[in-house]
Protein backbone atom coordinates (compact mmCIF):
# COMPACT_ATOMS: atom_id res chain seq x y z
CA UNK A 1 0.00 0.00 0.00
CA UNK A 2 1.12 3.52 -0.73
CA UNK A 3 0.89 6.25 1.85
CA UNK A 4 -1.02 9.21 0.50
CA UNK A 5 -1.18 12.50 2.35
CA UNK A 6 -4.63 13.74 3.36
CA UNK A 7 -4.27 16.84 1.20
CA UNK A 8 -3.52 14.68 -1.84
CA UNK A 9 -6.67 12.65 -1.19
CA UNK A 10 -8.69 15.85 -0.83
CA UNK A 11 -7.31 17.19 -4.14
CA UNK A 12 -8.14 13.91 -5.90
CA UNK A 13 -11.64 13.79 -4.41
CA UNK A 14 -12.28 17.42 -5.36
CA UNK A 15 -11.08 16.75 -8.91
CA UNK A 16 -13.36 13.73 -9.42
CA UNK A 17 -16.29 15.45 -7.73
CA UNK A 18 -15.95 18.35 -10.20
CA UNK A 19 -16.39 16.16 -13.30
CA UNK A 20 -19.77 16.71 -14.94
CA UNK A 21 -21.77 13.52 -15.31
CA UNK A 22 -24.61 12.88 -17.70
CA UNK A 23 -27.15 10.11 -17.54
CA UNK A 24 -28.95 8.56 -20.48
CA UNK A 25 -32.43 9.85 -21.21
CA UNK A 26 -33.79 6.31 -21.31
CA UNK A 27 -32.55 3.96 -18.61
CA UNK A 28 -32.49 0.27 -19.49
CA UNK A 29 -32.76 -2.79 -17.29
CA UNK A 30 -32.25 -4.86 -20.44
CA UNK A 31 -35.44 -6.85 -20.34
CA UNK A 32 -35.58 -6.00 -24.03
CA UNK A 33 -32.79 -8.42 -24.99
CA UNK A 34 -32.29 -12.14 -24.60
CA UNK A 35 -29.13 -12.65 -22.47
CA UNK A 36 -27.67 -15.16 -24.95
CA UNK A 37 -27.73 -12.40 -27.59
CA UNK A 38 -25.71 -9.97 -25.45
CA UNK A 39 -21.91 -9.67 -25.57
CA UNK A 40 -20.23 -11.12 -22.45
CA UNK A 41 -19.77 -7.84 -20.53
CA UNK A 42 -23.32 -6.67 -21.16
CA UNK A 43 -24.69 -10.09 -20.18
CA UNK A 44 -22.88 -9.99 -16.82
CA UNK A 45 -24.00 -6.39 -16.26
CA UNK A 46 -27.68 -7.19 -16.88
CA UNK A 47 -28.04 -10.90 -16.08
CA UNK A 48 -25.13 -11.80 -13.81
CA UNK A 49 -23.84 -15.34 -13.32
CA UNK A 50 -26.17 -16.70 -10.69
CA UNK A 51 -24.53 -20.15 -10.58
CA UNK A 52 -21.32 -18.41 -9.46
CA UNK A 53 -23.03 -16.07 -6.95
CA UNK A 54 -22.71 -13.07 -9.28
CA UNK A 55 -25.90 -10.99 -9.47
CA UNK A 56 -26.48 -8.55 -12.31
CA UNK A 57 -24.39 -5.43 -11.67
CA UNK A 58 -27.43 -3.24 -12.32
CA UNK A 59 -29.38 -4.96 -9.54
CA UNK A 60 -27.35 -2.90 -7.06
CA UNK A 61 -25.70 -0.19 -9.18
CA UNK A 62 -28.93 0.95 -10.85
CA UNK A 63 -30.12 0.98 -14.45
CA UNK A 64 -27.25 1.43 -16.91
CA UNK A 65 -24.95 1.38 -13.85
CA UNK A 66 -25.79 5.02 -13.01
CA UNK A 67 -25.18 4.36 -9.31
CA UNK A 68 -27.46 4.41 -6.28
CA UNK A 69 -26.28 7.12 -3.91
CA UNK A 70 -24.80 6.82 -1.35
CA UNK A 71 -24.12 3.10 -1.26
CA UNK A 72 -23.46 1.96 -4.82
CA UNK A 73 -21.12 3.97 -7.05
CA UNK A 74 -21.65 4.73 -10.71
CA UNK A 75 -20.14 2.15 -13.04
CA UNK A 76 -21.30 3.75 -16.28
CA UNK A 77 -18.49 5.70 -17.93
CA UNK A 78 -15.81 4.74 -15.40
CA UNK A 79 -12.30 4.12 -16.68
CA UNK A 80 -11.93 0.49 -17.76
CA UNK A 81 -8.56 -0.01 -16.04
CA UNK A 82 -9.95 1.44 -12.81
CA UNK A 83 -12.87 -1.02 -12.85
CA UNK A 84 -10.57 -3.95 -13.68
CA UNK A 85 -8.18 -3.01 -10.88
CA UNK A 86 -10.98 -2.70 -8.32
CA UNK A 87 -12.53 -6.06 -9.25
CA UNK A 88 -9.11 -7.75 -9.16
CA UNK A 89 -8.39 -6.16 -5.77
CA UNK A 90 -11.61 -7.64 -4.39
CA UNK A 91 -10.83 -10.97 -6.03
CA UNK A 92 -7.42 -11.09 -4.31
CA UNK A 93 -8.74 -9.90 -0.90
CA UNK A 94 -6.91 -6.58 -1.23
CA UNK A 95 -10.00 -4.42 -0.78
CA UNK A 96 -12.84 -4.31 1.81
CA UNK A 97 -15.94 -6.21 0.63
CA UNK A 98 -18.24 -3.22 0.09
CA UNK A 99 -21.55 -2.07 1.55
CA UNK A 100 -23.35 -5.42 1.56
CA UNK A 101 -20.15 -7.41 2.05
CA UNK A 102 -20.69 -8.98 -1.34
CA UNK A 103 -18.06 -7.62 -3.73
CA UNK A 104 -15.36 -10.14 -2.76
CA UNK A 105 -17.70 -13.06 -3.51
CA UNK A 106 -18.86 -11.39 -6.72
CA UNK A 107 -15.32 -10.70 -7.96
CA UNK A 108 -14.21 -14.24 -7.12
CA UNK A 109 -17.11 -15.53 -9.23
CA UNK A 110 -15.70 -13.79 -12.32
CA UNK A 111 -12.86 -14.96 -14.52
CA UNK A 112 -10.24 -12.44 -15.64
CA UNK A 113 -11.86 -12.48 -19.10
CA UNK A 114 -15.25 -11.67 -17.57
CA UNK A 115 -13.76 -8.88 -15.46
CA UNK A 116 -12.23 -7.33 -18.59
CA UNK A 117 -15.52 -7.72 -20.50
CA UNK A 118 -17.79 -6.16 -17.87
CA UNK A 119 -15.29 -3.33 -17.23
CA UNK A 120 -15.12 -2.63 -20.97
CA UNK A 121 -18.89 -2.65 -21.21
CA UNK A 122 -19.42 -0.07 -18.45
CA UNK A 123 -16.48 2.07 -19.64
CA UNK A 124 -18.12 2.27 -23.07
CA UNK A 125 -21.45 3.51 -21.67
CA UNK A 126 -20.70 7.24 -21.38
CA UNK A 127 -21.11 8.99 -18.06
CA UNK A 128 -18.32 11.38 -17.13
CA UNK A 129 -17.79 14.19 -19.61
Automatic annotation (TrEMBL):
Pfam annotation, one family: Cytochrom_C
Residue span, Cytochrome c domain: 36-126
Alphabetical UniProt keywords: Heme, Iron, Metal-binding
DNA repair as UniProt keyword: no
InterPro entries reported for this sequence: Cyt_c-like_dom, Cyt_c-like_dom_sf, Cytochrome_c_Oxidase_Subunit
PANTHER family, per the entry: BLL4483 PROTEIN (PTHR33751:SF11), CBB3-TYPE CYTOCHROME C OXIDASE SUBUNIT FIXP (PTHR33751)
Name this polypeptide is given: Cytochrome c4
Organism field: Vibrio variabilis
Biological classification of the source: Bacteria, Pseudomonadati, Pseudomonadota, Gammaproteobacteria, Vibrionales
Amino acid sequence: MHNVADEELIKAADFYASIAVSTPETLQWRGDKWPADMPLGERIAYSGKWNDKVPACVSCHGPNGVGVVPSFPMLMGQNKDYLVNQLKAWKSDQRPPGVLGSMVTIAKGLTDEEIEAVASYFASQGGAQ
